[in-house]
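Researcher: Batch entry, complex prediction.
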Amino acid sequence: MRLVNLSAGPSALPLPVLQRLKDGVLEYDNSSVGIFELGHRTKLFEKLLEETKVKIKTLLKISDDFEVLFCTGGATQQFSMIPLNVGVPLNVSKSKDLPAGYIVSGHWARLATDEAIKFRKVEILATSEDANYSRLPHYSSDRDDLSYIHFTSNNTIFGTQFQKEPEVSSLVPLICDASSDIFSRPIDSAKYSLIYAGAQKNLGTAGVTIVITRKSILDDNSDLPVSMNYQTYIKSKSNFNTPPVSTIVSVYEILRWIEEEGGVAEMEKRSHLRSKEVYQALDEVDAFIPFAEKSSRSNMNITFTGQNKEIEAKFINFAYKSGFMGIEGHRMVGGLRASFYNAISLEDASSFAQCIRDFSKIV
Amino acid sequence: MRLVNLSAGPSALPLPVLQRLKDGVLEYDNSSVGIFELGHRTKLFEKLLEETKVKIKTLLKISDDFEVLFCTGGATQQFSMIPLNVGVPLNVSKSKDLPAGYIVSGHWARLATDEAIKFRKVEILATSEDANYSRLPHYSSDRDDLSYIHFTSNNTIFGTQFQKEPEVSSLVPLICDASSDIFSRPIDSAKYSLIYAGAQKNLGTAGVTIVITRKSILDDNSDLPVSMNYQTYIKSKSNFNTPPVSTIVSVYEILRWIEEEGGVAEMEKRSHLRSKEVYQALDEVDAFIPFAEKSSRSNMNITFTGQNKEIEAKFINFAYKSGFMGIEGHRMVGGLRASFYNAISLEDASSFAQCIRDFSKIV
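Model: Structure tokens for the complex:
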């Protein structure tokens, strides 16, 4: 029996999308073959790949200054590709050796920083490590002596989320790991130079990473491994070797669904309503303590702890019996975490809030 | 309507596997979630990942000296990872700078060679480029002054296949790109040090690459990008970040099916029967000219040309009407190519042979 899947990713997909994928396993879109068998050089797939790009650009209002690329290796591979590929902005010619600035708001931001240190000079601009990442670090500066600035918009593990991008000099390319909140809200894409996201949360199934990048910020270094060079993806339209076809089909179907539901503005509205309900319940009851500071709270991942470990274990069990799964905290931090990506309905969020209240009465 | 899919990959999956995948889209194996939603830290997936490794090792009789890894980025990423990760064998201490030997039997072997040249000294040991790769190059030597030897067991584009691995010194690690014939026959794994294969032919859907490697041949260079370092995959059991879960599920289901059908010896038997039928028809008729030299012929990809381009176009159309698709040659070489991976039945191969004969009578 299907349960409401509140795990942090890979996570729930909307039922209409699953139905289309299911229908497509034996034959997808009159292609005579199924999704898992679809060739990457077929007209159908080449068209779908282009349409997926167009949908991404249209939904997020991305200008034609950007390329949309489909990479593999998750966000982790981007942690390496970014420092290896992003050049020094032409309009900041002070030095080839300008540091890349990193805002460290959580575990993944830290890993991105550590990886960049392997390949170029790095400066940590702000960190909330001392607060165990329970709040967002603050950065606002017109410094232009940086080759780029990297931040993570939503911290899946700690449950914090930037509601607005950091204020940075317009001369410095802003780069964002949006793996866990892309397509949950509109973005002001003009402020960004590169946005990347693993698909396995709001955007599809695990196995593909979307990279939206200004071509102008990229070097062209042919000494890089072929699959680590953004130019490979640009030149081949992300089809230089066999890409993860069925995973890209799932992204396409998710984007279709987001369009049909009203786009990212609607996704944002729902996301606020869902998280408001759940935070309200958590703030009301005594059994649980929300982890993230109020001003830093994420609309995607809601982190909290029980008064003790026993209560946490009891609640996991109670929630499971009420039809919810996947609420164990990340193995690094423990506690509890309920994730509300696009596929989770308002009704399910309300029921989960009620589940918190019901539990607090009997514990 | 489903057609018999003779394309070179991504390619046909067996119907019983498709049925299991289809059944699993809404809920896979009582997990309460579907294949596309399955978490990489769930007990079910961790167990499935381990069982997939065990099945690979059991089916191919791989000893415990080897690790089985699940990478992304296709064979292309392996073209870089191999020269970046394989060390110099300890028992050949002549020089840190021993060249890596490449046997160039086709387009992909050439790309593997070009990529390796970026990262270390390379020597081309044999090539059949002068014959437009219509035959296999010959290499047999007890040279031990090489850091490793790389060859491609089956050449998907040109339709040639090594029926036996090249004879090399036991002191030199032998590395094989088996992307298009892995699991189509038994292998003498003791002769190999590393075997890799994109899944999208005999082994599943596109999006994961299997690497079977002796741990002893690998360096541990922490300066490499995380996702380019085999040690990352070894230490994390291929689960350091979100792997392509649904693709790995498809590999698992294919391996189950291969077991149920009788293992790789049975796959080899079928593969010989299929290709024999089709080559026989091609050799009989006047309309077509087989591309590969007889002694180099592949059991996986059967390449041929028509007496002229018009005949080729007519045959593609004729075959389509007879229920076969995907027989256009690779865009680099043109002509025709029919691929017979594990999922194609003997009956379908016989019908295709008949289709060749029928066509030759009317053309």
